[in-house]
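Standup notes
- DV: blocked on the single-chain target, sequence here:
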Amino acid sequence: MLGMDDLSEPLFKTNVVSYLKRTILIAVCLAILAVPFAIAQENDDDDPLLVRVDGKIGYIDRSGKIVIEPQFEQANEFKYGLAPVSVGNKWGFIDRRGEFAIDPIFDWIYWTGFNEGICPAGINGKKGGIDINGKFVIEPKYEMALKFADGLMPVQLTKAEGDYFEKWIYVDAKGQQSIDKEFFHAGSFVEGRTFVSVGFDEWALIDKSGKEVTKRHFDSNDPWNVFAEGLTAVKVKKKWGYIDRSGKFIIKPRFDNADNFSEGLAVVTVGCYDGYIDKSGKFVIPPRFETAGKFSGGLAAVAPEGDIPWSHKFEIKGKSYAMCGAGLGSNAPQGYIDKTGRMVIEPKFGRGFPFSNGIAMVSFDEPPDVLLAIGKRGYIDRTGNYIWQPTK
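- DV (later): unblocked, structure below
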């Protein structure tokens, strides 16, 4: 286990957590039709919860009663009262009664679903954006389309003959190009800011006019939320820190990996272990977990350091080094801690997901080194008791 005195020691982190999270997972999520059991977002208290029974997907209420019979091959969580489901390799949206609100005519639906009234969708091999009536408001003529946010959608242009790099632009709700620039890659806006790729492993922070907010470029950034609670994680020279919307470092780069803030705390990695810092950069919970997730509802899923070999420590000329295990994460069981670091739900799950409205998804039999592996999944309440026993 790493103590606070280890923070200044050089460490070799061969664990592919940081690499795969921010490269392979991005590519996979962009290419996949939809990921069953995607983490719920913008859920109402009465939104049904997704379950899989004998390979078919249906939905339960928050008492554990089935309200939509398992019948779909692929589906995602409800968001804003709608859930994307596939029928015969075509995607549409059902309402809370299980009836189609948008007919299944699409080849592809982006996993985040609707945001600001628009959802990225694809038909005949091309992507655009649909409204809540299922009508394309952004013409399906792009190679890829990402989450519509802050009134803009990043879309990938079709490569012309001789093009080597991807070209991305931003369009508004009517499909009109809103920023007169092309980028190698482009992220969705959050709080009026996003990152765009301007070179190999070189990311610039821009505003909605396309202007670079700061002349400093970054080696990487948090790809999912961009900004959360006014800060975002960025990587410079192999270390992670946090900047504000002006691009100023609020927490200087000194971590081996970092996630964005949630409920005032952020997960950071030191060597092979995760801990939690506050917005001053001070450790509130020291790095002692093999894996750790964001706080939600005052709880966070973690895997304590266990007997399963995860890292190898050695010394060179009196200095301590660590080599972390390969894979997406540890095999150690996960439980839930509160903001003091106290374990309040014992580590007995293969994986724990964030709580939403007092309920969290948990899973078993999902190898950490296999992308998008779907094992047995169930739901627990804040006491750790099941409202739905894990099924597959």
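- Follow-up: The CA atoms of residues 169 and 181 lie 7 Å apart.
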